[in-house]
TrEMBL record:
Pfam families: AAA_lid_14, HTH_8, Sigma54_activat. Gene3D superfamilies: 1.10.8.60, 3.40.50.2300, Homeodomain-like, P-loop containing nucleotide triphosphate hydrolases. It comes from Phreatobacter aquaticus. It comes from the Bacteria. PANTHER family: TRANSCRIPTIONAL REGULATORY PROTEIN, TRANSCRIPTIONAL REGULATORY PROTEIN FLGR. Residues 2-113 form the Response regulatory domain. This is Sigma-54-dependent Fis family transcriptional regulator. CDD domains: AAA.
Amino acid sequence: MRLLIVGTLKGQLSIATKMAVDKGAAVTNAEDIETALRVMRAKGADLVMVDVAIDVRGLVKAFADEMIAVPVVACGTSNDARAAVAAIHAGAKEYIPLPPDPELIAAVLAAVANDAKQMIYRDEAMARVVQLANQVAPSDASILITGESGTGKEVLARYLHGKSNRANQPFIAVNCAAIPDNLLESELFGHEKGAFTGAVARRIGKFEEANGGTLLLDEISEMDIRLQSKLLRAIQERIIDRVGGTRPVPVDIRILATSNRTLAEEVRKGTFREDLLYRLNVVNLKLPPLRDRPADVLELAAHFARKYSEANGMAPRQLSADARRQLTVARWPGNVRELENTIHRAVLLSSGPEIGVDAIRTPDGGRLDERRGSDAVAAQAADIAEAMTRSLVGRTVADVERDLILDTLGHTLGNRTHAANILGISIRTLRNKLNQYADEGLAIPPPPQGEARYEQRYG
């Protein structure tokens, strides 16, 4: 694990540094935000501890501006409660009083390490994905993680890294959708001084930053196809070229990639290289949407309730029976991300010892179970369409056609002419099909009396 400590605070952070080293962390020190940025650009870190005397909000913003995702923990004297609250509001995940307690330092380091390894699940559908992930995690094979937005693709990627032989090396994530195309190449491969306007110094790219560890290419389907060819070479050869560079740089990394699109379809559209898909998709881990793993809803909800109660300095609160029922019947189109935000909101809105149903609210303040008429109709239609689609999977066209014809005939009370019109086929075709089904031993609804006489006369 790599730790960056920003600030001095009368030398007390040096005590924290020694404790962290004793716990097996590789520690780098920086006196100010600019130095911290240089360290993050060059080496990266898994955790940043910052003196509250430093502008914590400015540090968090500087990291965000450069697309650097790293948890920040603030440190200050134990009696500086106002600074502690301000640091949390500024974006710090935790506050540690100084002088530091060895057990507290160990707990913080362990929490950061465990975040990468923790998977919360109970549903059998998710258990199968995790089982496969455990099988492939020790290898260096490239893995493609797919699923709808909010299903937890990056969480699974971090889990894979934590279970791999590279767990003690860097895990670097790049959101390909969040970085403009003209900057993504430099972000991935780095650049030399003077490579383009504004390149005032050499910058190490994410490939080099992840050297020895794992590189996650998040939402890779958003990458411009022209950059995909350079990425393919880097993955195949394990060699990169910095923008403006003249010498190839070898790298030793494992590649993970995520996408909420079907990449085979993107290949057919011509927006994604087929050879790159084959290179990335050695193993595909497909995360099911939350609506398809109902047993996970309450497990995740309880986890988020504990997490956000602790984060907001509140006593742990349980979900009431009514709240649990409401959570289990919701469809969760935003998946785990939507559930997490809902529970975070519920923790803040609840006032009693339990999180009641009144605290389970939508972002605009409405009750989760209060849908407008059109929304309810749309949701019901979606449920019906989804159920119908699932009922067709695994069946032959002939079976589906037979059931459709017989169901339609039953709906028309045996009227062949009416059924043929509904089905859009000729009456002769319908009769031939019914004769075939009768020969197979199926019960065929008889025609109404008038039509039966017509059949007998003109059949």
